Amino acid sequence: MKDKGGIRTIDAGVPRLLRRWATAEDPTAGAPLDDLTDLSPAESTLTTPDGAALALSEAGPRDGALFVLAHCWTGDRRVWGPVARRLVQAGHRVVRYDHRGHGRSTVGSAPLALETLADDLALVLDRVAGDDRAVVAGHSMGGMTIQALAGSRPDVLAGRAGSAVLVSTSSAAVLHGTRGRFGPRVVAHPRVGAMLGRSVLGPWTVRSFVGRRPCLAHLQAVTETFTATDGAVRGRLLQGMTTMDLAPGLARLAMPVTVVVGGRDRHTPPAAARRIAGAVPGSKLVEVPDAGHMLPFEAPDLLARELLVAAGAARLVTSSESAPAGERSL
């Protein structure tokens, strides 16, 4: 960016940069926000006690392992699409849902806080798990939601989940100092949404969310879901993430836990992942070199494999299957 007579302009090199990003290798084949329409997902709505309507989608056969996937801040359930597609194609059942205030889910009257999102996750698990025990996975805020549920209602996870996969997430505050004081107000401002909605400036602004090799489709997906999320929702939830301390819940994760982080993640960096893994005895830590924060886009094959391994570790595969879930072909 350059200042010219008090007006901020974009360097001529930025569009050239976008062109380079547009030709980058894309493991999502140009569809980072995958709604799995061709796999005929079943759509449903779950109403919470405070009146929020949570949008759910389920795909895959019921005789495979069950995966429940929670998405990131200012994302929606489509963020997990590339990973979900691989799991369904491997013969498993995948449930995704939109956090309240995101995607097609409404806000309700309860406070917009991680504790409320944890209660929502408990309801989702109660709805979909039945006699099955799920692999529950969360990306960024989704991982924080799992940790919050472990702290507030560990009995739910113990009864409904057999293992947990925490992706690109943190157990401690993600913003500090001046950024912590002003960040929530900044992201809530309408001008921020308008800025990110611009075709050139938006992808350039969210460049820090991906790793060494940016792909334009991934950056466009980040801006699409961010601008679709109401500013008040963005601000209130980020405010909660500036003061959170989820460490007490980690000690209550009495199940196999896998922690996955991009080596170039600037928002929930490897140090945050190491803190989580260090607090959970026997947990597995996976670092993805050169990847950033958006691992469901940047490394869907790796995440699908780790989820399948987690299913095998929790013995969630039905007896009719001939091989452990972690060894099944994608």
What is the structure about, briefly put?
The chain has 14 helices and ten strands. With 330 residues, it is α/β, with parallel strands linked by helices.
SS element count, helices:
14
CATH class of the domain at 31-174 and 245-315: Alpha Beta
What's the arrangement of strands in the largest beta sheet? 3-4-6-5-7-8-9-10
Record field, number of beta strands: 10
Instruction: Tell me what the CATH architecture of the domain at 31-174 and 245-315 is.
Output: 3-Layer(aba) Sandwich
> What characteristic shape results from the CA principal axes?
globular
Structural class, by secondary structure, is alpha/beta
Structure description:
There is one protein chain. This protein has about 325 residues and is an alpha/beta fold. Helix 2 crosses helix 14 (about 300-315) and helix 3 (about 115-130) packs across helix 4 (about 140-150). It has a domain at about 30-175 and about 245-315: Alpha/Beta hydrolase fold, catalytic domain (Rossmann fold), CATH 3.40.50.1820. The strands form two sheets. An eight-stranded mixed β-sheet has the order 3-4-6-5-7-8-9-10, with helices on both faces. Strands 1-2 form a two-stranded antiparallel ribbon. Helix content is about 40%, strand content about 15%. A hairpin with a 5-residue loop joins strand 3 and strand 4 (about 55-60). It is globular. It has helices spanning about 15-20, 80-90, 115-130, 140-150, 155-160, 175-190, 190-195, 200-205, 215-230, 230-240, 245-250, 270-280, 295-300, 300-315; strands at about 1-5, 5-10, 40-45, 55-60, 65-70, 95, 135-140, 160-165, 255-260, 285-290.
